[in-house]
């Protein structure tokens, strides 16, 4: 179970303010390209599951993940997640020809097939996806990820923090944002949800 605090920033100015304030604690920048797969009849989505290939830094690395049964309440996200590394060259072939996902020796893909009815022969399609620039910080004992997510229909900004104590992490984060006059709201929709809706969260 992955548990994260998710706070959506109002705009690019708020994002700039956060990254400037956190700059002394910066660890790394990740350039992510997220692509999603499902059947033409949305077999996975209808069962509240998501199959994703995430490429890093111009396809130097790839992780496949299966997420299921997500909840997002008061800025705290909980989701069942399983993930593993894939050979990025083989994964790239799967973007062009999603049927090749079935040929990859992947625990995660096997789980998707067995638990969500994606048996051999069931057609998979690539739904597309979005780019994400993630700034990572070690701050006050928390690992913060500040995202700039670029969809075809606009850009959104979000602060995420994976934690075993979400209420305390949320309290510390909110205190920091409020003290610095940074406008935010609790995220009410996942990035994938926004992508599928085809519009930015209001």
From TrEMBL:
SUPFAM superfamilies: CYTH-like phosphatases. It comes from the Eukaryota. InterPro entries: CYTH-like_dom_sf (IPR033469), CYTH_domain (IPR023577). PROSITE patterns: CYTH (PS51707). Residues 1-192 form the CYTH domain. Gene3D superfamilies: Hypothetical Protein Pfu-838710-001 (2.40.320.10). GO terms for molecular function: pyrophosphatase activity. This is CYTH domain-containing protein. Pfam families: CYTH (PF01928).
